[in-house]
Specification:
disordered C terminus; Rossmann fold; 11-stranded mixed beta sheet; alpha/beta; single chain; 22% helix; disordered N terminus
Length: 403
Amino acid sequence: MGEAPAFFEEDLQGDFSDGFDLKSKGLETATVVGDKIYVIGGTDDESTSTIDVRILYKSTGEWVIPTVLGTKPKLSKGHSAVLLNEDRILIVKGDSTPDDCVWSLEVDTKFVREHNNNFETEVVAWSRGVKGDVEKPIVISGPSGVGKGTLISELMKEFPSMFGFSVSHTTRGPRDKEKDGVHYHFTERSLMEKDIKDGKFLEFASVHGNLYGTSAEAVEVVADAGKRCILDIDVQGARSVRASPLEAVFIFICPPSFEELEKRLRARGTETEEQIQKRLRNAKAELEQGQSPGLFDHILVNDDLDTCYKNLKKLLCLDGSSGITTPKSLPKMFVLPLDNSISKIDQKILMNCGTAKIEKASQLMFVLDVSSLKGGAPGRTRGLNFYAIDPFADGLNGIRQLS
């Protein structure tokens, strides 16, 4: 629990208009969600470098400092806030770079509710807004020797600009010629354990005393580059990703028979009999789990590699019937002034903003269409759609799409 600054004790005595900012001073805003008031921002003395969050219960007058998941946005010289769909607050920062001006604070999403059970305090989660959208990541699982690595290699070879791999994290030290950020993100165990607790990892496992895992940020980095992320993970990892906020396509590759799988493993000639038996035991368990209802969206039988690869491409709409949508960043000219104001009408956010290059900037209004927003903490909120309205132009001539 904590105490409110003196100016907020005065400001929060008035009418509570659910969903929108209350009167605020300095660098803070107050947004009402039910019985809670979310006070968002820094302080007048700018003693902090990131935007903080506090919660005031209207019924009791008590203050709570919540557990904050995701990466906190950097403090700006002012911001506006508006409630979206009763589960998240949209933050528009002033005087910010194009890729840092729009953020989402999740306050009652599925992700937040699930993590409330892991902490003794309230939980909120930050998610950075990104213009545009990408195809869902692909999770490919299957037992060792089934050929999923070959299938993925063929995809990467034929469509090098469409697909990318996320870089996993590990607590083991780098081996000879391994580069941090290329082969793995090498990290300290205590830091990775904290990030796992904070919900930043989609899946993780302990192998020979070291932690390995896939972070949500690593997947989002691939999407930010305009590529569709492929995750090659085991069934248990796929189960963890399925339980995460990440929306993905889950594909299980299986052999035509267990006997054929054993034949392929032995034909490789790279393992001892003991290792083969261990892989076969694991494969049997994975084949059973792969049939679990609701885990995988598609099951492909790799009887013939060429046929299976064609079926995989058809499943991913790579046979000429679809394409990949490349995300677009906000234009470099887009800069919010310090005195930006914000309001919400249906699924449109209206902002009186300025730009660095458009003439008559003070007379332009920017509109953010939030109807297509999706995704969330601890990564990105995608699908931002901005356009400008010039009140001095007529009809459609007054609309300037920011793309």
